[in-house]
């Protein structure tokens, strides 16, 4: 393992790899140019990072200045980030999907002086707001033909191609190199490394200040908890590096451990890229795993007959084998032989579509439905679930490679304390650490709180909000509801999501939604019912299943009415809702629903860039339809 210590900073990680693990000429980054995958060495990465550093030092950028990035995952992101980090500047990554108003807010709130942009669309977005961003001095396009875009007369910034910066400073002088090394030595662990703006589901986005120590320590303890990651791994990166999860779980882990990073071309080409790159590790979100699960089930059972029977038998065999192994039992010769047949006939074909080399996938960003995790476990593909927030760098807990408890987010990482606090009395129910782990321990649920090395420095320029989030005893309040189950942390829901019905019953939407998501007909589900007599839902159907079942044309999804009123489709959906409702308590069951024609949309402000539904906005936007559900529901019961 690399020599990470309390003096390490983000820019020292990669240089430590070159010094102790890999030769400079070995491959670090992989990306696709045209039809071919191109490899970039550690040496070339560091040279280009030095070029970025030399350029900004020449422009007068100093330690603590904020420099922005609004670019898809790519080698350019790495050159720019490494280049600014080693001179003590602060990375402010902006989600490419944010609106012009949100982009302008972040640029102004953080005081960004320069911003790297990844494509024509993002370039135009920045140009539209640049005149009102007084601190912004440089816009740096990382793509060709940006000169064709006319710069508005009122925009007073210098536009310089990223390729020109790299070419201009390709040969960094001895004096420049010495200045860069001096700057790098002055970057301290307690210095802010990055400002990451929260999604803002309930208000104005806040800039989370994460230090070099936050990031490096988080990586160090995660590698301790998952010691199977080594320098031979190839990660496939597709989640946005503007989000803390991918930044830490892929980028920083690879910088610390010397793993290769291959950048996927796009979400649409992810399946193809997996087959080409053949990754050994991937960070992912539950939605991707749910889609793989749904397609595999559909493909294996479609048409019935012998093929479907073999598929079902294989899953049942894989389940029995997994359960035996996880219980510490010997599966026996007969079950092991059956598992070998299932592997050859079914499992290997599914694994081939992921490239055939996956050791495991790390799932984060949302709760993974228990049945989906078990499905991958039955196939023999490990899914390690993690939990954390932007404010916690992000990892607070992660599944151990050798110990799987489905429906939980793993063991607490070393060096921090995680508490469960009663929501009403504020009494702390339990405090657990990595070392107090007991696989038989369970406790009541409450708000999850944390203190230790993973907690942010605070919100940028927002002392009142910082004091509200971090109490006098240094506990950061996550706003998540959870408990400990079999020694592992289990997240129940968000505190702000909690529905209290008209009779005072508490309903946590996430676990209820996950039960209904077992239906292959449902892609997304949004529960409603706060201060109401019963639960209703807005349902997003699985478009592919819906289209095939009712032979729908694309024009069906372009109709003006946001909700589907076709009685046959409503009856079709109701069959699954009624069947699944039997698994829930009566007060948790959906009594009425509306089927939304299209998914919730980022551009319309319905969801955040991390795909979390903005409850207040959705309930306000569809208030009329929601009220109709309750009027219809009351009539049905009367």
UniProtKB/TrEMBL annotation:
Cellular component terms per the entry's GO annotation: membrane
InterPro entries, sorted: AMP-binding_CS (IPR020845), AMP-dep_synth/lig_dom (IPR000873), ANL_N_sf (IPR042099)
Cell inner membrane found in the keyword field: no
Single GO MF descriptor: long-chain fatty acid-CoA ligase activity
Domain AMP-dependent synthetase/ligase residues, every copy: 23-460
Keywords for the protein's UniProt record, in alphabetical order: Fatty acid metabolism, Ligase, Lipid metabolism
Pfam family, one: AMP-binding_C_3
Name assigned to this protein: Long-chain acyl-CoA synthetase
């Amino acid at each position: 393992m690399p020599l990470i210590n309390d003096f390490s900073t983000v820019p020292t990680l990669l240089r430590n790899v070159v010094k102790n693990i890999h030769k400079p000429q070995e491959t670090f980054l992989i990306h696709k140019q045209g039809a071919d995958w191109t490899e970039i060495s550690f040496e070339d990465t560091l040279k280009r990072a030095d070029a970025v550093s030399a350029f900004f030092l020449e422009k007068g950028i100093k330690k603590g200045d904020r420099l922005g990035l609004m670019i898809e995952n790519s080698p350019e992101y790495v050159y720019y980030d490494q280049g600014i980090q080693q001179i003590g500047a602060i990375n402010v990554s902006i989600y490419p999907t944010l609106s012009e108003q949100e982009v302008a807010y972040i640029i102004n709130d953080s005081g960004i002086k320069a911003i790297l942009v990844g494509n024509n669309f993002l370039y135009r977005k920045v140009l539209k707001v640049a005149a009102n961003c007084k601190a912004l001095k440089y816009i740096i396009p990382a793509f060709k033909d940006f000169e064709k875009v006319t710069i508005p007369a009122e925009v007073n910034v210098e536009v310089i191609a990223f390729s020109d910066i790299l070419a201009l400073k390709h040969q960094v002088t001895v004096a420049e190199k010495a200045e860069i090394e001096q700057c790098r030595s002055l970057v301290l662990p307690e210095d802010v490394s990055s400002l990451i703006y929260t999604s803002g589901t309930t208000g104005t986005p806040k800039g989370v200040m994460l230090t070099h120590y936050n990031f490096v320590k988080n990586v160090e303890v995660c590698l301790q908890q998952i010691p199977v990651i080594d320098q031979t791994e190839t990660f496939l990166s597709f989640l946005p590096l503007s989000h803390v999860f991918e930044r830490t779980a892929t980028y920083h882990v690879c910088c610390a451990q010397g793993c290769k990073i291959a950048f996927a071309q796009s979400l649409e080409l992810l399946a193809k890229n997996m087959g080409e790159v053949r990754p050994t590790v991937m960070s992912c979100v539950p939605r991707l795993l749910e889609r793989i699960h749904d397609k595999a089930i559909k493909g294996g059972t479609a048409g019935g007959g012998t093929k479907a029977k073999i598929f079902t038998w294989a899953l049942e065999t894989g389940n029995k084998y997994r359960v035996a192994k996880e219980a510490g039992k010997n599966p026996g010769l007969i079950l092991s032989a059956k598992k070998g047949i299932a592997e050859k006939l079914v499992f290997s074909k599914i694994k081939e579509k992921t490239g055939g080399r996956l050791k495991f996938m790390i799932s984060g960003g949302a709760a993974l439905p228990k049945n989906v995790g078990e499905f991958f476990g039955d196939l023999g593909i490990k899914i390690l679930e993690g939990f954390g927030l932007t404010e916690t760098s992000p990892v607070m807990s992660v599944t151990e490679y050798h110990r799987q408890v489905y429906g939980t987010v793993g063991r607490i990482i070393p060096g921090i304390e995680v508490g469960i606090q009663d929501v009403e009395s504020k009494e702390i129910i339990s405090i657990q650490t990595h070392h107090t782990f007991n696989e038989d321990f369970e406790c009541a649920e409450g708000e999850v709180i944390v203190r230790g090395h993973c907690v942010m420095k605070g919100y940028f320029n927002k002392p009142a909000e910082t004091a509200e989030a971090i109490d006098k005893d240094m506990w950061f309040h996550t706003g998540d509801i959870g408990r400990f189950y079999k020694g592992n942390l289990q997240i129940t829901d968000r505190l702000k999501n909690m529905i209290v019905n008209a009779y005072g019953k508490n309903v946590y939407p996430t676990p209820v939604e996950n039960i209904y998501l077992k239906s292959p007909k449902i892609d997304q589900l949004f529960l409603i019912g706060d201060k109401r007599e019963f639960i209703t839902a807005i349902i997003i159907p699985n478009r592919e299943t819906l289209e095939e079942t009712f032979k729908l044309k694309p024009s069906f999804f372009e109709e003006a009415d946001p909700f589907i009123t076709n009685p046959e489709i409503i009856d079709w959906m109701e069959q699954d809702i009624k069947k699944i409702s039997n698994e829930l308590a009566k007060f948790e069951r959906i009594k009425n629903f509306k089927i939304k024609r299209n998914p919730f949309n980022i551009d319309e402000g319905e969801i955040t860039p991390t795909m979390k539904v903005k409850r207040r906005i959705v309930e306000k936007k569809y208030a009329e339809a929601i009220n109709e559900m309750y009027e219809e529901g009351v009539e049905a019961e009367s």
